[in-house]
Structures are given as structure tokens and as C-alpha cells.
Amino acid sequence: MAEGKKTPTPAVTANPWRRLRAYTDARIGLGRAGVSLPTSELLAFQLAHAQARDAVHLALDMTTLCEQLERISGRAPLRLHSRAVDRVTYLQRPDLGRCLDEDSRSRLHMPEASAASPVDLAVVVADGLSSFAVQNNTGPFLEAFLSQLDASGETWSLAPITVVEQARVAVGDEIGDLLNARAVLVLVGERPGLSSPDSLGLYLTWAPAPGRTDAERNCISNIRPAGLDVREASRRALYLLQEARRLKISGVSLKDRSETPVLECVTGPGNFLTG
Amino acid sequence: MGKAYRYTLGQRVYRFEGLADLMARATPARSGDRLAGVMARSAEERVVAQMALAEVPLKSFLNEALIPYEADEITRLILDDHQLSAFDPIAHLTVGDFRNWLLSDDATPEMLTALRPGLTPEMVAAVSKLMRNQDLILVAKKCRVETAFRSSIGQPGRLSTRLQPNHPTDDVTGIAASILDGLLYGNGDAVIGINPATDNVSQSVRLLNLVDDVIREYAIPTQSCVLTHVTNTLEAMEQGAPVDLVFQSIGGTEATNRSFGVDLAVLREARDAALSLKRGTLGDNVMYFETGQGSALSADAHHGLDQQTCEARAYAVARKFEPLLVNTVVGFIGPEYLFDGKEIIRAGLEDHFCGKLLGLPMGCDICYTNHAEADQNDMDNLLTLLGVAGCNFIMGIPGSDDIMLNYQTTSFHDALYVRQVLGLKPAPEFERWLVDMQIIQSETGRLMAYVPERFATALKRLPSSGTGVGHG
């Protein structure tokens, strides 16, 4: 937040308790012009909303992303599209965003991905609700993840990376099934918050097939520079993947014990209102 | 399925497969009904359905259950509790006549109050589908619904707010900071209500104690609520936690409620437990319900009904338990159900009207998500319209930004805006408290320019530089 950039005009009543923002990201102590937001706060909000809107509506730059993923993985990704033809359809028809269009399906039926050779893992990149998240955070995450996978000393055969436009998480079920993958890892742009337009989510599903429910997936959320960093996210993803392969399950019955335990949530002086 | 309805327009005969189908096709357009496949197939079909619906006698709703009596406990609740004697003054009317009557001077606030036990949610939903936004506002304004716990909510000329101090990790300092901000902006007279980030019993108890401590320390005429599952609140009460209000999300079909993990029996049990605590000083309305169009479809529990009719049926559940507050969370669910500002505004006015006509203390979470085609201007419009319509309460949150739930709702400033332009005041007990605490001036009701003494003292407890962890 832009704090104290300008000297307050006499029409604005400042709030001395603004210093409590050291303890919360909530927009407290904004001050007021009459009873309304001061101009600077109004515009700060509008900017945050504009960035969140752009994250939803600006299309993914597929060329740049695919070049980056090819550099990282050493293999050109497969470009796919869901049955939602455009963003307006995507937003209103969650069912269409969960399925591949005919053209994409036929491309995955190629001999390269035939049933003869099962693979351990398919990585699916889906634009979801934030192209920012995917554009900015997928490359760094996969770089960290693939190197940790390498360093694990285990054998993991990988399907070619797929990048899907106008896609929701469940599209990974169909792709994993067509690629004959034992597990699928879907990287997806999450619903953007006002202060977090670039949040990437990660969903792991063991034995992907159409019809899997959300209860059968494990999720790692809020992967972004100001949230969960890519090295920690990929450490957790690798842990979940190893556990899923060992137990042959994913979802609610596969607990993520890799998380740092959350301690008593008091970062500051506590309830200062009652002393 | 009941009998088919037919309507002839020129050469063309339109056919509707029963009352549920007719209601759905008559509903103003929204994305959730399109997703469910129950929306009118053309603009003309929608108006024809409205014309056919206008001719349906209100009595039909007592004979043709939209969801079978045997299959759904909400249908049983609606029909078993219906009072023919209260229905009698309008028993001869069609849906179209009913709209005319509601708008007429015959429908006084007293008449509308007496009518409530004679109305079913389906009658109310049906008439709302024929009404323009101004009709929904005019009739809702005539409905008076007052409730009380430690403050009185819903008196004419008053607009209350829920102070919503959510924090992504339930951090105590962060929550206390947002509570202070809200109180100093004159918010919080409906409830201080936290959505916990971690949804379990021990966390709820911690948060209940936090808010209760603040309410007692400053003798605030308001009530607390932690918006956790009803079974968690029941357990918290067993542990002796200071529970003022029991919260629960509810829907309009038995299957929707099952997807929320509740039924009428557990709501009754929780209400009885809260009543036995006798913590209310002015009244014993101990329930806080949240609803919202689309929840039934989202749970695949809509039985082919349109989402607005499902929503109205949720109000039958709410009124059974005499709540202090009912909040329709209108734009939270996303564009799959309400696509844009126009659909959100319409839904907010419908829900407020239907709830009020059925006798509920309706408030509205005037809100949107970032993937909906909506912005602050749309919220300003709905806020102003609901203020005119006599809405009991709205949300109040720092700078409209819920940093835990990641959506935008009305701010503390927004509440002051609508109070100022419409000459509305907070709940009377809370207004007196604001004056006593020197938060507002007694003559003008305007905010003071300085920090009131009690709160300045509290702020002195903080490290002087306020350096802490640099979020700012």
C-alpha cells in the first residue's frame, strides 16, 4: 500500500491507529474525506481491483510460456484447449472447462502417448482464473520441482507437459487418463484476491480418470513470491507425490504431514483492546 | 410432476411442464439457471411464462408441491406450518392480483405482518418474478421486521452493520485491529462476526472469548458470533464458551442442507442450547443464518427448481427459528450463478423482498468476486437501493477487502455513506453507546475528529513505533 506518499489535505481526517497495519494486511486506518475514502485510498483500491481483473481476463501468452517450459523440461509442451471456447463461456460453464475439446483429445491419442507405455507422472498447466499466476510462477516452480525430482534419486517417468487454455482443475483427470499416467499434477491459476492476483494452485490426483472428485485430490495453494515460495511448494509436492505412489491414493486420506505446524496465532501484542 | 400449463400468444401455444418449470422460465435471466438448464429459452418465452404465472391462483401453491412432500423436510415444514386463517384475505387472488394488492394502499405494514403465516416461500418467489426492481423496493419498505438480543435491529430509520474482522490466520492482534477500526467508524451494531480461517472447535472458542472480552470491556450493546459449523458451536456451548448467536449456512431443500451437514433437528437443538444460556438482554433472537442463490444447484440438490425459488424456500427454514439476522450473501458464489452486476443487484433485491415479506430480519452481504463482471459501482448501486428498501443490516469490513475470504463487500465507510445520504442511524442502543464513548457527536451523529479516550488508552498498550512485522 502507498502509505503517506502525500501530506494529507485538510479535507482528509487521518486515523492515528493506521500504525496497526504492522499487524494486519486489512485496509484499516484509511482515513476519511467526510465519511468517504480519501482519493489516494480510492485509487489504491481501484488499482488492486484492476490487477485482479486483468489476471482473470488477459489471455495467457502461450508462445512465451511454452518456450520457457521447453527450456526447463527439454521437451516441447503439448498445447491443448478445453471445450469452453472463450473466457465468457469459461466463467459461466464450469462443466466445459473440465473437458478437452475434440481436437485436443485426438492429439493426445497419438501413438507417442499410447496405452502401451504407462508413465509415472503427467504435469498439466491450466490457465484457470489467473493468467498472471501461470505466466509468472509456473516456470520457476517447475524448475525447482524437476530438479528436486532429479535429486530424489528415484525413477520418475514423465509424460510431455501439457498446457491447456480455458481449463479447470478436473481437466487433468481426462489428460492423465489419455496419457496413461499413474498420477497427475495440475498447476492452475487460482481465483485472484484483491491483494493476491498471482496465486498459483497445485492439485495432485493419483490414478486420474474422468469422474474423480475434489475429495480425491491434494492441494497446495497460494504459490507466489509474496506467499508460498516455489522451493517450499515443490518440496511439499514431491512429498505428496512420493506418499501417493507408496500408498496408491490421493485426497483426504493422504495427509500432508510435511507442513510446518501452525503455532498459536499471535504475531503482535495480542488483544490490546482489553489489555 | 403436476399438470402442464399452457399459454397462447398469437398463433403459438407455449407449454410449461408443471409449476416448477413455469416458475423457472418466468425468472429474470441469470447464469445459474442457464447452467441448470431451466432458464427461459428466449426472451419471449420468459414474458409468456410470467403472463401464465400471473394467472395461477395462489391456492395452487398449497396443492402442488414443487418438491414432493414425502421427499423433502423443507416442503413438509412449509405445508405443515401454513395457516389457512392468515391466508384467507388473499386466498382468492392469482399471482398477478397478489402483485397489485401488495403495491396497493390496502397492504399496510400491519396487514403484511398478519399475512406472514399464510404465505409460502413459493407464493412469494412467484410474485417477485413479476415485479420490477422498484416494486421489490416499495413492498419491502412496507414490511417491518424487528429483532433483538443486546441491540434492537430493524427499527424504521435504522441501518445496522455486521463488523467482519476476518484475518487469514486468525491472528489475534490483526482481528483486534480490525474490530477497533470498525467501532471507531460506528460499525458493529448487528454483530461482531468472524469467519474463522481454521474451522474447528478450539479455534472457535478462542475467537468467541476474544470478542466477548471486547464486548464486556467496553459494554458494547452488540453480540458476537463465530461463523463456524453449527455442530462446532454446540460443542463450544457444552464447553462453556460465551456463545451469543448460533451461525449456520442454510439452503431451501433438504438435500442442500444435508450437503451443509445440517437438518432441522440439529438447528432446533442448537437454538435451544443458545436460548438456555440467556445471554440476550433485550430479546432472545439467537440465530444468525446465511443464504444465497445458487447453493442448491452447487450441491446438485435443486430438484430442477430455479435458484431464486430455492433461495426463498431457505427462508422457511430461517423463520422457523426466529433469527436475529438473516444474511443473503449475494455475490460471493461467483459468475456461474450470478454473472454480473445486473444479476447480482436483481438477486439482492429479490432476496431482501422475499425474506422481508416472509417476516425475516433481512440483511445483505453486498459483494462480488474478482471473476464476476462487477465492481464497486455496482455495489454502490445495490447498497443505495437496499438502503431505500429498508434493509436491516449490511456488512462492514476495512476498505471493502476481505483478506481471508478473498472477495469484496461493503466497507465501514460505505455504511456511513448510506446512513448519511438516507438519514439512517445505527441501532438505538448502539447509537447511545457511540455518543457515550465519544465516537460520534450527539447532535449531528458525525464522527469525532480525534481518537476517543478509551481507545487512545488501548493504543498506548502497543509498542510505540508499531514496527512489528512490516506488512505495510
TrEMBL record, chain A:
Keyword terms: Bacterial microcompartment, Cobalamin, Cobalt, Lyase
Catalytic activity, as annotated: ethanolamine = acetaldehyde + NH4(+)
Signal peptide range in chain numbering: none
GO molecular function terms attached to this record: cobalamin binding; ethanolamine ammonia-lyase activity
GO biological process: amino acid metabolic process; ethanolamine catabolic process
Cofactor(s) for this UniProt protein: adenosylcob(III)alamin
Pathway it works in: Amine and polyamine degradation; ethanolamine degradation
Pfam families named among the record's database cross-references: EutC (PF05985)
Enzyme class at the top of the EC tree: lyase
E.C. number(s) listed in UniProt: 4.3.1.7
Chief location bin: other
UniProt record similarity statement: Belongs to the EutC family.
Description of how the protein assembles with itself and partners: The basic unit is a heterodimer which dimerizes to form tetramers. The heterotetramers trimerize; 6 large subunits form a core ring with 6 small subunits projecting outwards.
Identification of the protein by name: Ethanolamine ammonia-lyase small subunit
Source species of the chain: Marinobacter santoriniensis NKSG1
From TrEMBL, chain B:
Name under which the protein is recorded: Ethanolamine ammonia-lyase large subunit
GO BP terms, alphabetized: amino acid metabolic process; ethanolamine catabolic process
A Gene Ontology term for the protein's cellular component: cytosol
Family membership: Belongs to the EutB family.
Residues reported to bind adenosylcob(III)alamin: 196, 248, 298, 404
EC number: 4.3.1.7
Keywords: Bacterial microcompartment, Cobalamin, Cobalt, Lyase
HAMAP family the record matches: EutB
Binding note for cofactor: Binds between the large and small subunits.
GO molecular function: cobalamin binding; ethanolamine ammonia-lyase activity
